[in-house]
User: What shape does this take?
Amino acid sequence: MRLTTILLLAACGLSSPLTSAQNTEQVAATAAPTTHPLFWDDYRRGWHFYEDPEPEIAPPAAPAPQKASPAPTAKAPDTRPPELIEFEQLQKRLEEYKNIAIIRPTEANVRRYMQLEARVVRQASYFADVAQRVAWSTPDLDMTLEGRPVNAQAIEVYDREQTRTRQKSVAHLAKTHVLFFFFRSDCPYCHAFAPTLEAFQARHGIQVVPISVDGAGLPNFPQFRRDNGIAKTLQVTQVPAVFLAEPFTGKITPLGYGVLSESQLLERIGAVSAPGAEALAPSATRHVSLQ
Assistant: This one.
């Protein structure tokens, strides 16, 4: 009877309750999501099983905000004079041409550098000509009019005037200053220098005070003073040595060591006694009690 009923239902396009239930289960299984059900919902697996937990999926990191690139700053205009810009470009080009010619000394590279160098030399020569004309027309800018001249005739006049001025200066200093002459009796240079000092004293009127380091005198200065320690104070390490001294103030300035000529003595006395000379080498001048 049951078999007959099933056949009739199948002929009419109907399914049995069992078949319908199975189809419903299959449809539900198909529509269900693919996630694993909880163990108590899956009665077929039972309670005796173990499965690794599902890995946690980290949420996608939010993209870092991109920093806006700074807007390009406008290049400040070059406010220098155009001549400076042109000169800088010329220097750079000349250096580049030279470096290229050194690394690749081809005929073309060397010729290009030499042509530019010749142009620079001609420009410099033109500048020198203009500067010379300006100096000729402007006495304040003519260096040949200051200091020792270059013309032979002018040099003779210059030396004569310098000597006259220095002689006046020494004659004026002779009223308040003396020359300390340190020597040794066995020093040949001291013997050679002594006559010059003796003549200098007679001609310009400035007194020479001979100081013997070894306690003996010289033919030109039979009357002398023995060193009482002043040579050590003034750090006299060799002889002959000459110092310009002002006894009333104790100011002593070295003029030089070795054999000096009369013109050298005049020049050096004028130099160390000029206004502001002590500021040029303050350590050279010493103040010693001469009493």
